[in-house]
């Protein structure tokens, strides 16, 4: 039973879709992470080629490479500070680095005992804090004015994914643990649960612009769960299948199952995207449980997605995600960075019936 029906089929004149824009000079290896500045249309892109690239996106979707800086290993995550003048990245070199776009300098600001899988900026009433989640089974909080972390939190397992909507922070780890933090008390988990999905957690993403706080979880087994934090809202929890294909065109068996690689919530409307190893992207409305849009399948997995600050641009990466291991890394595998101009009807919530 799919909770998300097909997109509404109201008769409307066929309009040729405006083509998504391909960004020139993309990274030379798989793209791991995307983040737009909260101040302007600057896009930070982390890659397995050890570099972070910054692009400026113009009004017509044209882009210009602005800066690049390096880690000593693959970059796994990128984010911006609130002012939008600093980019922070985490990598397989166990380091968190900060790049100041005003002077072009990059400095190390965080350190773990294993690769840093996620970096997130947390804007608290007392100022900005950097949260880093690592495969060393810790989260560390950093005040960038001091060299040492202000706090270190032990996780039950390696950090695979983390997201923040202050005061909510959610971490997904190995072995399907989900830890929920109330950042007014950042050192202790408010709640620890096992993922409602039976398979490995790939991504957690917090609701934006939602009456009740919660998050979405995506797994390697083509499934997404919508989870509310408070017990009183738990009747609204549900999960649905996505990013699956039929073995043969007429089989209708959905037996080919793909990982959900990323989930991005729209900053204004609270709708969200999912993308997968099957090369597809969908936009969804969790409240009416409907699919709003399906993109044409790309020629490779979609590894990462993000909306810009006002939700008018949706960026996505077509990159090998190692979902088929070494054998899937064929020569000439596409590695593209794409920009999609969002139309209202694709991202606005549907009225409740």
TrEMBL record:
InterPro entries to which the protein is assigned, alphabetical: WD40/YVTN_repeat-like_dom_sf, WD40_PAC1, WD40_repeat_dom_sf, WD40_rpt
Repeat (WD) residue spans along the chain: 68-109, 109-152, 260-294
Residue segments, region Disordered: 1-30
Record bears the keyword Protein transport: no
SMART domains associated with the record: WD40
Keywords: Repeat, WD repeat
Annotated family: Belongs to the WD repeat rae1 family.
PANTHER family: MRNA EXPORT FACTOR AND BUB3
Listed name of the protein: Poly(A)+ RNA export protein
High-level lineage: Eukaryota, Fungi, Dikarya, Basidiomycota, Agaricomycotina
């Amino acid at each position: 039973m799919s909770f998300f029906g097909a997109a509404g089929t109201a008769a409307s004149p066929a309009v040729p879709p405006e083509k998504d824009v391909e960004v020139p000079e993309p990274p030379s290896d798989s793209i791991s992470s995307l983040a737009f500045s909260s101040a302007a249309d600057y896009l930070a892109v982390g890659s397995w080629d050890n570099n972070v690239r910054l692009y400026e996106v113009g009004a017509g979707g044209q882009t210009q490479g602005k800066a690049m800086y390096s880690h000593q290993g693959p970059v796994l995550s990128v984010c911006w500070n609130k002012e939008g003048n600093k980019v922070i990245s985490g990598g397989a070199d166990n380091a968190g680095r900060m790049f100041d776009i005003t002077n072009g300098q990059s400095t190390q600001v965080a350190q773990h005992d294993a690769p840093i899988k996620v970096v997130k900026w947390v804007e608290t009433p007392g100022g900005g804090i950097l949260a880093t989640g690592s495969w060393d089974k810790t989260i560390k909080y950093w005040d960038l004015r001091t060299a040492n972390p202000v706090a270190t939190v032990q996780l039950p397992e390696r950090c695979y994914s983390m997201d923040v909507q202050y005061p909510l922070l959610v971490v997904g780890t190995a072995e399907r643990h989900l830890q929920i933090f109330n950042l007014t008390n950042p050192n202790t988990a408010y709640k620890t649960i096992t993922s409602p999905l039976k398979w490995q957690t790939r991504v957690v993403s917090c609701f934006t612009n939602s009456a009740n706080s919660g998050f979405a979880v995506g797994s390697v087994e083509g499934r997404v769960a919508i989870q509310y934090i408070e017990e009183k809202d738990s009747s609204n929890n549900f999960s649905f299948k996505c990013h699956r294909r039929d073995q043969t065109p007429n089989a209708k068996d959905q037996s080919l199952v793909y990982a959900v690689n990323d989930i991005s919530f729209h900053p204004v409307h609270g709708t969200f995207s999912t993308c997968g190893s099957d090369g597809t992207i969908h936009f969804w409305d969790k409240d009416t449980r409907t699919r709003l849009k399906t993109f044409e399948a790309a020629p490779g997995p979609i590894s990462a997605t993000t909306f810009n600050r006002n939700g008018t641009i949706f960026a996505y990466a077509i990159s090998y995600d190692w979902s088929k291991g070494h054998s899937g890394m064929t020569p000439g595998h596409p590695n593209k960075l794409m920009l999609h101009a969002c139309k209202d009807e694709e991202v606005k919530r549907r009225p409740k019936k």
